[in-house]
Amino acid sequence: MGEFEELYRKHVDAVFRYSLHCVGRREIAEEITGDAFLALYRNLDRIGEAQLPAWLFTVAKNRATDYWRHCAVEERYAGMATEAATPDDPAVGSWLFQNKALKPIHRVCLVLRYVYGMGRSEIAQHTGLSDNQIKSCLQYARQLLRKQLGVGSE
Amino acid sequence: MEERAKDFEPDEERFLKEFGAPLAAARAGCPPPETLLAARAGVLPEERGAGVVAHIASCPSCQALSEDLADEELSKLTARERDRIRGRVLAEAGVRRAAGWRWFWRPVPVTAMVALAVAAGAWIYVSRPTGPAGRTQVAVARLPEVLRLEKPAVKLPVAAALIWRGEGAPAQEEFLKGFGAALDPYRAGDYREAATRLEGLARKYPKAAETHFYLGVSRLFLERDEEATTALEEAKRLAEGALAQDAAWYLGIASVRAGRVEQGTAELRGLCARAGEYQVRACAALKELGR
């Protein structure tokens, strides 16, 4: 049991990060990470430490592949365009994706909120940020966009 | 913009009037964020993955967003999540451990009494005439330790990855409701009630692999091994991916317990030959079975 705890402490962050990069949703990444460690627990006497964390990544990847195979999201976006659409307003598009003052955390919040229309709790599921952090990121991004594109409503 | 959130504040409403349309246009035709990540990780099904990868290659905004989403700051595991994962793993693994330890720590006189009872039971089985009814018991007595029955976790909430075929959304909703209700007794260990509910559900929705799978497992816990075999065969036939492997593993156990050792070993050979969660255990079980 002590050995498992040690392995869990050592590898859980990396396995979660990998799972999150496979599925993009924290609650699902959490479940997949749990599945991987449960499988490890059950095979503890047969898996050498040298096989870790690669063995855990393989379990996580298999679970993620299975998830995507059956995911409803996949159906929603069936037949989507494979070529990028041209933005109506290139200024906003290029500002959004080339602006150095906008950090990844701000851009992700901005896109999830104002492009995908997500609620703040849903953004939290994607990003792991608190409600206050999300509010603050959104406020900063809005102010920056208004200031730099010359529209001032605030 | 897609379906809008309901918690926009006044300033956000103003912002959307000013920039909502151009922002949405900047992402028009683009895959959703989680799909971008999955394409980067190479876990999308091939037929979809190729399209998304091609899209990302031609779309600067998707390239930027997928890099943002993979940013380390947004991928950190929180202490709460770490504790929750650990708690779930230990809770699901703990059932087996508790059962094992309970026997280990029994006082010697109790152990001796149990040993005597087991010996008497074994003598009764050996003394019974052979035949279809006795076959199961002989098989159970020889069941390899590695094939010991463990309760599989309910996978549905993991990924909302219910395998569903050929029905519309309302039927799916209805099915999910019934499936959830059937799994409540399963989770609580009331396999008799779980089996009854799952049998009804399997008749109504014969294409849902999960129903057959949990029905098969419930029957295994009820020691209805022959019936478990039937349900698990159906689950294996319908399932794909990890669930197909789960079904094959439990079908292997059910078959060996039901005395169909050849069928059981065939399932185990399939699992042993393929990389996956059950590979090591399946190979070990074959060894113990002398196959």
| Structure class of chain B | mainly alpha
Annotated CATH homologous superfamily of the largest domain in chain B = Tetratricopeptide repeat domain
State the total count of DSSP E strands of chain A.
Answer: 0
Low-confidence residue ranges of chain B: 95-113, 123-141, 157-164
Largest sheet of chain A: none
- Write down the CATH class of the largest domain in chain B: Mainly Alpha
Q: Which word captures the global form of chain A?
A: elongated
> CATH class of the largest domain in chain A, anyone?
Mainly Alpha
CATH homologous superfamily descriptor of the largest domain in chain A: RNA polymerase sigma factor, region 2, helix turn helix motif
**Number of helices in the DSSP assignment of chain B:** 15
CATH architecture of the largest domain in chain B: Alpha Horseshoe
What is the helix fraction of residues of chain A, given as a range? 55-70%
Instruction: Kindly report how far apart the N and C termini of chain B lie.
Output: 60 Å
Would you write up a description of this structure?
Helix content of chain A is 69%, strand content 0%. With 154 residues, chain A is an all-alpha fold. Chain A folds into 2 domains: 75 residues, Rna Polymerase Sigma Factor, Chain: A; 59 residues, Arc Repressor Mutant, subunit A. In chain A, helix 1 runs antiparallel to helix 2, helix 1 crosses helix 3 and helix 6 crosses helix 8. The longest helix of chain A has 22 residues. Chain A is elongated. About 8% of the residues of chain A have low confidence. Chain B folds into 3 domains: 64 residues, no CATH class; 65 residues, no CATH class; 134 residues, Alpha Horseshoe (Serine Threonine Protein Phosphatase 5, Tetratricopeptide repeat), CATH 1.25.40.10. In chain B, helix 11 runs antiparallel to helix 12 and helix 14 packs across helix 15. The interface between A and B is large, with 90 and 92 residues.
